[in-house]
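Why do we care about 3D structure at all? Because function follows from shape, and shape follows, mostly, from sequence. That is the central idea of this module. The next example makes it concrete: a single protein chain, its amino acid sequence, and then its structure expressed as tokens.
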Amino acid sequence: MHGGPALGPVFERARYPDATHVHWWHQPLAKPCAARPYLDLLEATLTEFRRVAAEAGQPLTVMASSFGAHLAVHLARHVPELIKDIVLLGPTFNPEQAALRLARRAFRVHTDHPNAGKLAVALGMYEDDPGRPRFWDVFGALSQLPDVTELYFGPNGGAEASRSFAELIQQPGAFDGPTSVATSDDFSALDHTPVRSAFEGPVSVLFGAYDPMIDADQDRAIWEVIFPQAAFFKVETGHFPLLELTLDACLSPA
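And the structure:
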């Protein structure tokens, strides 16, 4: 389950064209004027997973990247019996704080850019008055800086993944802005206090050593509440281990 929200699985499909045993689910777009798009996404996730598990006739591995980790938590809460194991890749528990970390990193990298001042002002206004309107101001200012997507990737082998990501994100279906905004805002309106999951099987959590969006120590403490049995690994990637490592390395971290 990919992240975003509203990123399509075009990146994974391009990276692993022969992985026919993996179901790269293309999550549905938010319906126009949907009252609760995030809750709609959770329901769609549960419906799709039940369908695929029924076809397989056995419990399945759930692999979730970034924001997709919340979809994995939802499945673990409602159908733990259908899950063999869970692999979380760069899971973002608080997407708003993760995006703000990225913005601060981008400002440090592009301090001399003509639009860096706009980002600094937006970040300052958010600090004075946190909330979704100020957050989207930060996001808008961030989008005016160059090569922001490069920051997602690590320095060791991430250059090729970064180029591919920059090319693919321009393709139709790779990303849907309105769905991302609607789903993110609906998500932020809910209580996300971490609660222990009913799933007691194996869980692996991979954090990228160069991830600009995650504080691994802080986030590990949160995921340990949800999955006390989880094994944690730090890998030499940025925010998307699946796009920098191999599929086998992500599923079976050493």
